[in-house]
Amino acid sequence: MKLERGLIQVYTGNGKGKTTASLGLALRATGRELKVCMIQFMKGGGPYGEQMAAEKLAPFLTIIQTGRPGWVNKDNPAQADKDLAAEALALASEKVCGGEYDLVILDEVNGAVSMGLLPVERLLELMAAKPQHVELVLTGRNAHEKVIEAADLVTEMREIKHYYKAGVDARVGIEK
Fold first, then answer.
1. Which of 1, 9, 93, 112 is deepest in the core (most CB within 10 A)?
2. What phi and psi, each to the nearest 5 degrees, are found at residue 107?
3. C-beta atoms surrounding 2 within 10 Å
4. Triad 138, 143, 144: Cα angle to 5°
5. Residue 175 confidence class, pLDDT cut points 50, 70, 90
6. SS3 at position 5
7. CA distance 53 to 61
8. Residue 64 φ then ψ, to 5°
9. What is the per-residue pLDDT across 64-97, written as a single tens digit (0 to 9) for each?
10. Residue 1 has pLDDT above 80, yes or no
11. pTM confidence score
């Protein structure tokens, strides 16, 4: 099965659930034997539970981590983080335009743009180059207004209450 028409979806906002929503879409797509590739920007740590699940769903789901372990300094990102983000976007372009995948998810790419790791113009070029049959999903906080304008669907996750504020750390199997 191939998609007749692939669209561009954006999951953004300060609430929890952007990556999780994209993984739900990936699960649905793999159930229909569509090929899915998720490239995770700024997620060099791990392993995360979704990577372990991808191993079980291979060859339909591939997850590629990029970036260094730890947090990117959003006020003054290191050149190494910029270089790794540029490499990840080049890889994303290969996956989007290469013909192997039906759905490509660029996890946390909006954050990479908002932190200055990637110029928004490079992401917009990739969005414009997307083949008609490929669905493209962009996740992360602070989606750029030009990305929002170019997308077909934009969902904003809004935090109302979060257990992190009560001191609950990220839990294995739930957040990681």
1. 112
2. -75, 125
3. 9
4. 120
5. confident
6. coil
7. 9
8. -120, 120
9. 999 999 889 989 999 999 999 999 999 999 999 9
10. no
11. 0.95
Query: Which amino acid appears at position 116 of this protein?
Result: G
User: Taking the CB of residue 68, how many other CB atoms lie within 10 A of it?
Assistant: 14
In 31-144, the DSSP E strands lie at 36-40, 61-65, 103-107, 135-139
DSSP 102: S
Cα-Cα end-to-end distance for the chain: 31
Both tokens of 43, joined, read 């997620």
Residue 30's nearest CA partner among 105, 103, 123, 125 is 103
Cα 112 to chain center, whole Å? 10
Cβ burial of 160 (10 Å; 0-12, 13-18, 19+) is exposed
Per-residue pLDDT tens over the stretch 33-54: 999 999 999 988 878 899 999 9
Q: Provide the strand spans (E) within the chain.
A: 8-12, 36-40, 61-65, 103-107, 135-139, 153-156
